[in-house]
Specification:
By secondary structure, the protein is of the alpha+beta class. The chain is built from seven helices and twelve strands. The protein has helices at about 5-10, 20-30, 35-45, 50-55, 115-130, 145-150, 195-205; strands at about 55-60, 70-75, 85-90, 100, 110, 135, 140, 155-160, 165-170, 175-180, 185-190, 210. The strands form two sheets. Strands 6, 7, 8, 9, 10, 11 and 12 form a seven-stranded antiparallel beta sheet that branches. Helix 1 (about 5-10) runs parallel beside helix 5 (about 115-130). The longest helix is centred in the middle third of the chain and has 16 residues, at about 115-130. The protein is globular.
């Protein structure tokens, strides 16, 4: 089983809530091979709404028929379908393949090196809006503010290369996230009030409310 401990700690997930084998088999019937990490994620987390559908959306088994593509298994989409994420058909036999993003389903660019990295990065992005305590607005920071975050908060180790031209994630606790977008806009949240207030006390003063 894939190690999803980072996601479990972030969302305080204590028990699986995923799709049954026969539901995942319906996806296999369309695409043939499925990466092991894909199967593990759908089996363990597939039905958790706040993890998978707060901002962008995991494609559920019965909806794969509406996302057919000759070369990619499309499994995640932006909330207004401005972009989609998928796995190339030649990589479906790999246990932990790379993930690509496309705005038009014609040109595809590498988003993350592995599927595990994608699911973890997307969990951090969803957490920004889904955790119990969230910032009231985005803040725009300058380079000095960015350097402060980089120097004082731990890099979460995953990122988006393509979506909004890049998003990095930071935070010193397992239950919190600060995400920094390529345009130096930040947002933050936590599942624990104390940790959120600590973030808010510092980060709300770093930049300008948007």
């Amino acid at each position: 089983m894939t190690d999803f401990s980072t996601i479990k700690k972030l969302f305080n997930i204590s028990k699986p809530n995923g799709f049954a084998n026969e539901e995942i088999q319906a996806v296999k019937n369309i695409f043939g091979n499925l990466p092991q990490v894909f199967v593990d994620y759908y089996s363990e987390f597939g039905k958790i709404q706040n993890l998978n559908h707060t901002q962008d959306s995991l494609i559920i088994p019965e909806r794969f028929q509406y996302f057919k593509h000759d070369n990619y298994l499309i499994f995640y989409h932006e909330n207004q379908r401005a972009c989609v994420w998928g796995i190339h058909k030649d990589d479906l036999s790999k246990p932990n393949p790379p993930v690509y993003m496309s705005y038009d389903e014609k040109e595809w660019n590498l988003e993350t090196e592995t599927l595990t990295d994608f699911f973890t990065a997307m969990a951090f992005l969803q957490a920004g809006f889904a955790l119990e305590y969230t910032a009231e607005c985005f803040y725009e920071i300058d380079d000095e503010g960015l350097n402060f975050i980089v120097e004082n908060y731990k890099n979460k180790g995953v990122s988006f290369k393509q979506w909004t031209e890049g998003i990095n994630f930071y935070g010193n606790h397992d239950d919190e996230v600060i995400f920094v977008m390529s345009n130096n806009q930040i947002f933050y949240s936590s599942n624990i009030e104390k940790h959120f207030l600590e973030l808010d006390e510092v980060l709300s003063k770093l930049g300008t409310e948007l």
